[in-house]
């Protein structure tokens, strides 16, 4: 994901490197916070950026009951209400490479999480958002005068009706065509606002 701004003079750092942001080297020591905790923070930052660009508001359930965020979108075209909401469960992994090959990649969920995401019918729809990140935190972020880049990408899926197949955990398929960005979020909200599914 790149958050771009107008470039008043010359090409951006991404343009100078063929559209790929360079990795910074010789950085000062990073904090001792566990990598998994940092991954959770990074994916929340991604969600916030997408929601901001899509004109959505965010709220966090307290206490957390298996759903990380509620995302709401107001638009005059919605027919079910003037503002619609979806629930978002975030997951993050460095065990998959960027640009996963094929039409979908496999991701394993605890059955308790899957049951919550797969429940149907529902009054508020749920989606799973999976973020793929590099293993090294030094490669997660690159900032310059023209843009802020986060690696690698978030993908989304709606698991409503998905069966539990494993004893304790179940592998689901996440489509690689469903990149989670501001346009995708607006399209999800438009479908939900028309009375459909994400």
Describe it for me?
The chain is α+β, with helices and mostly antiparallel strands. It contains 4 helices and 10 strands, in the order βααββββαβββββα. It has one domain (33-193): Trna Endonuclease, Chain: A, domain 1, CATH 3.40.1350. The chain has helices at 13-16, 35-54, 111-118, 182-193; strands at 2-4, 57-59, 69-74, 83-93, 104-110, 126-132, 141-143, 147-150, 153-157, 169-175. A 5-stranded mixed beta sheet has the order 2-3-4-6-9. The protein has a 3-stranded antiparallel beta sheet with strand order 1-8-7, with no helix packed on it. The longest helix is centred in the N-terminal third of the chain and has 20 residues, at 35-54. Mean pLDDT is 89; it is low at 1-17.
Comma- or semicolon-separated keywords:
globular; 10 strands; 5-stranded mixed β-sheet; Trna Endonuclease, Chain: A, domain 1; single chain; 22% helix; disordered N terminus; 198 residues; alpha+beta; 3-stranded antiparallel β-sheet; DUF4365 domain-containing protein; DUF4365; 4 helices
Main sheet specs: 5 strands, mixed
Q: Widest sheet: strand order?
A: 2-3-4-6-9
Determine the mean pLDDT: 89
- The termini sit apart by 21 Å
Tally of strands? 10
Oligomer: single chain
* Total of DSSP H or I helical runs spanning 4+ residues: 4
User: Per DSSP, what share of the residues sits in E-state strands of 2 or more residues?
Assistant: 25-35%
CATH topology, what is it called? Answer: Trna Endonuclease, Chain: A, domain 1
Shape estimate: globular
CATH class: Alpha Beta
Question: Helical proportion?
Answer: 10-25%
